[in-house]
Automatic annotation (TrEMBL):
Gene3D superfamilies: 3.40.630.30. InterPro entries: Acyl_CoA_acyltransferase, GNAT_dom, Ribosomal_N-acetyltransferase. It comes from the Bacteria. Residues 59-195 form the N-acetyltransferase domain. This is GNAT family N-acetyltransferase. PROSITE patterns: GNAT.
Length: 203
């Protein structure tokens, strides 16, 4: 091996979490969840464009209409973060009769993770035409099983703006306890302080 090659190859400093097994696909009766990956940009972009006015009041990343190219770049960044176990982003699809993913319904994942404590936060959004059909609750139950059964979670959270009634209802329907309402604990999309609800579940 040349001196140049030796100098160009850093000693491995892989965090232990990178070697943890995390499934890239999950499924339930009506849903298939796929981890973020290259090639999903167009489908995600279409869902966000359809739902832009409903997402804009709550999602900081949804303040300008997306482009397919921009969303594809985001998919690849999320895929890298998934591999590094820095952020576990999934997209959920209506499950076809053959068991394969059909129409994309929304995004979700386990975020803001503390691997030492084994604490995870569930995040989600759903496209407008898929609201009110129980898909989000089914997805939350899937992610809950992933967190507690496979990732040995000690604490699972859902956090949201206290004014977001739909998101709060999802947490309450799925057995999360309102642990606290934190005053001025987050910035709203308008840049002003907002109260944040913290919902929790334990094993």
């Amino acid at each position: 091996m040349s001196d140049a090659a030796m100098n160009a190859t850093p000693a491995p400093t892989v965090p232990p979490r990178v070697l943890l097994k995390v499934p890239e696909e999950l499924s339930s009766e009506r849903l298939v969840l796929l981890s973020a990956r290259a090639g999903l940009g167009q489908a995600v972009c279409a869902a966000v464009v359809e739902s832009f006015e409903q997402l804009k009041p709550w999602m900081p990343w949804c303040q300008e209409p997306p482009t397919v190219e921009g969303m594809e770049a985001v998919m690849r960044q999320m895929q890298a973060r998934f591999i590094l176990r820095e952020d576990l982003c999934y997209y959920f699809f209506r499950r076809g009769e053959d068991g394969r993913p059909g129409r994309l319904l929304g995004g979700c994942g386990l975020h803001r993770m503390d691997w030492d404590l084994r604490r995870f936060e569930i995040g989600y959004w759903v496209r407008s035409t898929a609201q009110g059909q129980g898909y989000v609750s089914e997805m939350v139950q899937l992610l809950g099983r992933l967190a507690f059964e496979q990732l040995r979670a000690r604490r699972l959270e859902i956090r949201c703006d206290a004014r977001n009634a739909r998101s709060r209802a999802v947490a309450e329907r799925n057995g999360f306890t309102l642990e606290a309402v934190l005053r001025h604990a987050m910035l709203g999309v308008d840049g002003e302080p907002a109260d944040q609800c913290v919902y929790t579940r334990w094993p």
